[in-house]
Amino acid sequence: MKTLIANGTVVNSDGEQRADVLIEDGRVARVGPDLAAEGAKVVDARGCFVLPGFVDTHTHFDLDLGFTKTADDFITGSKAALLGGTTTVLDFATQEPGGTLAQALETWHQKARGSSCNYGFHMAIARFDEATEAELPAMSAAGVTSYKMYMVYHGLRMDDGSIYAALKAVAKQNALLGAHCENWDVLLRMVGEVRARGITGPEGHPLSRPSAVEAEAVARLMRIAELAGTPVYVVHLSTKEGLLEAQRARSRGQEVYLETCPQYLLLTDERYRGAGGAKFVMSPPLRKQEDCDALWRGLAEGDIDFIGTDHCSFTMAQKARGKDDFSLTPNGSAGVQHRGELLCTYGVRAGRITLPRMVELLSHNPARLFGMEGRGKVAEGYAADLAVWDPAASYCITDENPAHACDNSPYAGFEIEGRARDVFVNGAHAVENFALAKPGMGKYICRKGCIHTR
Ligand code: URP
Ligand code: ZN
Ligand code: ZN
Fold first, then answer.
1. Cβ(180) to ligand 1 under 6 A?
2. Which of 27, 252, 253, 287 has the greatest count of CB atoms below 10 A from its CB?
3. Which of 310, 318, 326 for a ligand 1 pocket mutation test, highest count of atoms within 8 Å of Cβ?
4. Residue 58 Cα: closest atom of ligand 1
5. Per-residue pLDDT tens for 255-277?
6. What stretch(es) of the chain map to CATH 3.20.20.140?
7. Is residue 283 in contact with ligand 1, taking CB distance under 6 Å?
8. Peptide bond into 284 cis (omega under 30)
9. Atom 4 (ligand 1) nearest CA
10. Mean per-residue pLDDT for 98-115?
11. Comma-separated ranges of CATH 2.30.40.10 domains in the chain
12. Topology (CATH level 3) of domain 53-369
């Protein structure tokens, strides 16, 4: 089966060109002007951009917190991803404190069956001991080449020694370890202080986790990685101060990668005030406008490497668990559908970044860094994971119109200009004219090492 995407403008991280794209057997067979369409289904992309499908480096589908589960599983989450032009997600397979990495991987493979977009897994390590370390080669062989450690959360929080040892062991596999950076001991004390002031609503959430809670943990992670002599990455960076700490580490010669998320670029802590504030309870919390501005600058100037969504969705009924105590609110929010649309509208159209830079952040960098060989570019021989992007398509995000399975979006009220009209996954025409046409076409991406881009 051949498909010709005709008359579009192909955009890669290194620039744009008017070109047709011929898809054959799941791959891009040719990119060039006026390609012959013989025997091919033709998709007219006149007036549209043809982009490499986006990689979401940070999702939590079908995550069980013990007291509740995320609203989205792989079936619903992956459909929402595709409709936004995301053809691959990297979800966090999470080790049970008493379990093995192999068990977590098997569990996540089961959860991901029927996914509509491609998927790979970072492994979240909940216990770093000799047994866990001995499993790393098997993880590499199974295509897991990145790990996350949490400096927070009961049952997941890692001590500094474990992070140090894990960084060294993971680097030996040519894999990469990222960390959720917040100071757990201090923030727990601060939660107590905020509650003691009689603050129980969602406005207490950012008060208990100020910017320095993240910056201290980023600084500590940087020094631990310096001592270990390994690369490291920061997941969901939210603050100007944290960015400065990472930049300091780089100026010492360290290899540091940074991920941020649309919520830290576009939303501020004013959202916690008033009714509906629980929707925005996520960790790290939303920050100040000066943090958003610093992160946008970091994107434009090349300091931030990629953007994930941290999609971790809960309904407002689930969020109501924290109605009398903000610290009981399930942490996380939805966003997997809207990352490209938001970056295009508030990044590219607003003149903060160029379209090739958006492609670099959403497709090229994550595919390379996380070892997805032959993906992340519109180029001959590459997998045909593609988005036909209509810059003229506009709409307003509401709480009701996203395809994800929860009843709210942190981006409700955001006007969008530019969205995916058609999406191809492994060559299959999965989204046609803004609607899901072929669900269930996702494949597991067995990753190979990581390509050091710094
Ligand atoms: O609040 C968040 N971000 N929930 C998801 C888990 C995490 O920390 O990434
Ligand atoms: Zn996290
Ligand atoms: Zn997360």
1. yes
2. 287
3. 310
4. 9
5. 999 999 999 999 999 999 988 99
6. 53-369
7. yes
8. yes
9. 332
10. 98
11. 2-51+379-391+417-436
12. TIM Barrel (3.20.20)
The rounded Å distance from CA 342 to ligand 2 centre is: 21
Q: Are 50 and 378 in contact (CB under 8 A)?
A: yes
Task: Take atom 2 of ligand 1 and give the residue whose Cα is closest.
Answer: 332
> In this model, does residue 72 exceed pLDDT 90?
yes
How large is the average pLDDT for residues 438-445? Answer: 98
Tell which one of 209, 234, 331, 406 to mutate to probe ligand 1, the residue whose CB is within 8 A of the most ligand atoms.
331
Nearest in space to 218 (alpha carbons), one of 269, 291, 272: 291
* CA distances from residue 402 to 6, 141, 151, 225, 319 in whole angstroms, order as listed: 29, 36, 32, 39, 18
Ligand 1 proximity of 282 Cβ (cutoff 6 Å): yes
The CATH number that domain 2-51+379-391+417-436 falls under is 2.30.40.10
Q: pTM here?
A: 0.98
> pLDDT, tens digit, for every residue of 306-338?
999 999 999 999 999 999 999 999 999 999 999
Extract the tokens encoding 316: 């407002």
Whole-angstrom Cα distance, residue 140 to residue 123? 11
Model confidence at 449, pLDDT cuts 50, 70, 90, reads confident
- pLDDT of 127 > 90? The answer is yes
